[in-house]
Amino acid sequence: MKSTYFWIVLYVLIIVGFETTAMTCFKKSLDDWRYFLLGVLFYTGVGGLLVQTFKLTGLAMTNALWSGLSVMATTTVGVLYFKEKLHFHDFLAIAMIGGGVIILKVTA
Length: 108
Prior knowledge:
This protein has one domain. It is 83% helix and 0% strand. The chain is built from four helices and no strands. The model has no long low-confidence stretch (mean pLDDT 92).
């Protein structure tokens, strides 16, 4: 079981990296359409890795981890790279999402 959990976490982390990169490409595609194609390529990788993850765990667990970590990663890129502004309630919501991901990890 420990080995399976390692692969689930690894796949989800790579998925989050691919999705964050894809979202960044889509944002940059406003200035250069080639970034749109690159974003689609990264989302294709997300789909392939999701299929592999579903072989190891259920849809609910995968989606919860992926969604929560993805929100935190894309928000970080938005703030640091694109200089987007967050308000207190945004930080609070992201902290709650992070707490949910931690609870899932501890109880898995």
